[in-house]
Amino acid sequence: MHYALSIKHYTIAILTLLALTSCGGRKGELRIKGEIRGLNNADLTIFSRDGVFQGIDTLHVRQGKIDWSCTYHKENGSVTIVYPTFSTLTVFGGSGDVILMEGDAQNLSATKVSGNEANEAYTALRTKLDGATPEKADSITAAFADAYPESPVTRFLQLEELGRQTPEALKKGTGLPDFTIVTRKGDTITTDSLKGKYTLIAFWANWRGGTSTINTRIRRLRRQAKRELECISYNIDVSKSILDYIERTDTITWHSYNTPMLFQSELPSRLGIRDIPFFVLADTTARIICAGSDWQKDIEPALAEITSPAEQTAR
């Protein structure tokens, strides 16, 4: 009888250990699992602004199920998932974490994320922010930051706020940093080669949305410009086939450059660009005239000197 009880207790101990270890992840790995109901088969873009991994990866959804992982040895980090609707979701985790997602394709903004305190706190915060006015949203996020100053979510919110501000490298009158890119057609562009002409650099990606509007505006601008204007399409899509299709359908005939390195690539990182779309307009000495993500507010007013009056009213 004593032997039978010992075997029973040993079996229970093993099963308990297996149950516990199945809930946790492996050291040196960050894993995301879960289900998005109604999102049967899709390949979602996933990237990191703070170095969890470099470039862009693909998060596969099969029959609504998600199971993605990457090598990561730090305690805290974040990755951002881009849905087919171009909305995004940022999740937080570190070495050994298994992040759980549960949502519905009909209401992606309500996706619940758990697995650690940061994700659960951010899920609750997103619920409070849903439908809030800008003023109310600012108040809610400020209260969260005051209550949890050391939370990875707070650091993320601070970076988001910085992304809405103009970095020093993009201030009016600042010279473009020295850079060299080789376009998709093999042309080499440097900072020095841009001098003597006005230059518009458009940073964009198909997964962020608004692509057609961006390219239509640039095409009109090139037709209407009264002075020599260099336009550069700085694209961060990972799929070359998608970019090929867009360039054909949108008739992109100006300089086109592509890199999968996102915000870690040379020019965005040196300029401090943290989101897209983003535009930089420089004068004939390669000094910045204006920069920003809102074409009509940040860029269009400064085009008066290099475009016709008709273009200023075009939409």
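The above is record 1. Record 2 follows with the same two-line structure.
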Amino acid sequence: MSDTKPSSGAGHASRRAGQYLGSEGPSSKGFKRITVGKAQILARVEATSWSRQAVEAYGSLYRAALDSASQTLHGRGPVPVLTNPDGVGPPWVVRRYYRGGLMRAFGDRFLRGGRPRSFIEVENSAKMVELGFTTPRIVAAAVYPTGVLYRADLVTEFVPNARTLADVLFGNDESGAETDRDERREALFCARHLIARLSKAGVRHRDLNARNVLIAREAQQVHAILLDLDGCRVEGRSNPADAGRLGRRLARSIRKLDRTHERSHDDDGGHLTNDEIDHLLGLSRRPVL
């Protein structure tokens, strides 16, 4: 079933359909506003044509991407990766927003009220870049309202040579080999540095976990990138206590993954103990032997 009714043309915004786009503001600079039927889209110049055609043909950016993905990543749902429609430049990652936790049963449906998650992410990404953080470059964001609910998609440029912190700690590398202990320690240290910077900049995240921290390697440099920016509040007021809160939240998510990750009892696989994880995240001053 389509997310929104496909249109044979560009479509016309209804009185209700235009409520999310509003007037241009600093955070959406560089994006063009598009409506296709009930769908509302913010797209950069290079994504305008593809976004319009995707919704006209498939009803949503996500469904169009699933049909032509060059590879598929995995999050709360399949995450298609597209070859850049222009034929040059980095591939695009197309993510559908899904609920988690106690609201997981609602899947990809959100109650309409305030700004939708994809547009919040556009706004927060702009703020984070102004603060000097690296974030995946957003090329399009879409919302599909239906009655009192909506679905939403986000399209970002693919970050090469990068894996989520969860994959580094519990998965395999591109060759299929298990990540070694030193790489795991390095990834956690990068996450700790990111948390310290977030705290200093007054950025809070309500759902910091090992799946929304990306560990990227560029030449000899390794750094952590924060994902899922719709969960951020960029307040600009530094609070040293926030680093501890974010670190503990991340550590809890790692322990949860560790409990669900299947491995044989006699396979240490270079896995880190809880004490080591706490120490590397700056949650414990006690040295780990």
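Confidence is low (pLDDT under 50) at residues 7-18, 263-267.
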